[in-house]
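User: Show me a protein chain along with its predicted structure.
Assistant: Here is one chain, sequence first, then structure tokens.
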Amino acid sequence: MRKQKLLYIIHGIRTGGAEVAFLSALVELEETYDFKAIVLGKSNERLLDVIPNRVKSKLERYEYTLPVLCLHLPAILRSIRQFSPDIMLSSLWRSAVPAILYKRFNSTVRYGVIIHSSRFFHTADWFFTTRAVRYADAIYVDSDATKQFVHKRVDIKCEIQVLSFITSKATDKIEASSQSEIRFCFVGRLHNVKNVPRAVEVIGWLRRQGIDARFDIYGRDDGDWAFIKKAIQMRRLDNYVNWKGEFFPEERSSVLSNYDFYIQLSSHEGRAMAVIEAMQHGLVCFVTPVGDIPVYINHMENGVLIDIKDETHWKASLRLIRNVISDVELRRQIAESGRRYFAGKSNFSGDLIDALHEFSGYYNTVR
């Protein structure tokens, strides 16, 4: 018996949740399967530097813009046909294009689609993701919220399975800082769904209350930086709110250790992995109850849920934020409860491999 052939198709490797999950699973996937990955788009070379060479050699990269990628689609399909996978995974809408085409002409391949969001971001995302779901033999999602989203919008022929997207373990116990400077951070794409200007408003309000609040923003611009910058300048917060750009997964602990508070006031989410990672590192999280966040955050026990739906609730939430950050013992209790919540939980790599073994109907063999 030989190993099953597994093909994993993903778009360019950057510091998003889907890409970090992919990177975290590579070594185990390569050890378990006859493995190959196709990467569609440009990748951050520093992210690839941490991959062992034997695994990196299994990545077939097409570092082109989208129009040029379309011209290379026949070559990509030839490569898939030559590899002849037993199992094929696609993650994010761009990867669904060759996966759908290959599945149409080779119905024997077992096709699993991985969906990471409880909304469609544009027409291409909607078009190719919905068609991938219809062709898929298995559907994997990052949260119950994403599962419900898929059920409502697409007629499906197979079960939807929620996978853990945890990629790192919780840190050791962290004590709340008693320093006068109150440091917040946010980690994620600078997209309007993340509502970062609203978080900037929090910092301005706290400073007007005499609290020395600071806010560092981490992530790549996805169309919202101009609006965030305007919010900063309008409130004269240039010295207190800073965009730090991206950091790499191996830097996560050293970066997050500089903060006591995490703030994310999104209008939509799936699993919200950045929130989970902040909790694992002992940060008190102020977050909106969207996506799967209310599933794992118990208000005032392991995090703080913020209501932004109208002005009355928003003002009450601002006062709640002030009260929490002013109570060092309460902060410590919330932070420690949040940190312990994910201790011992399964991770993405283990969940994915278990799901694939179940999906294929046998353990690492070929029929």
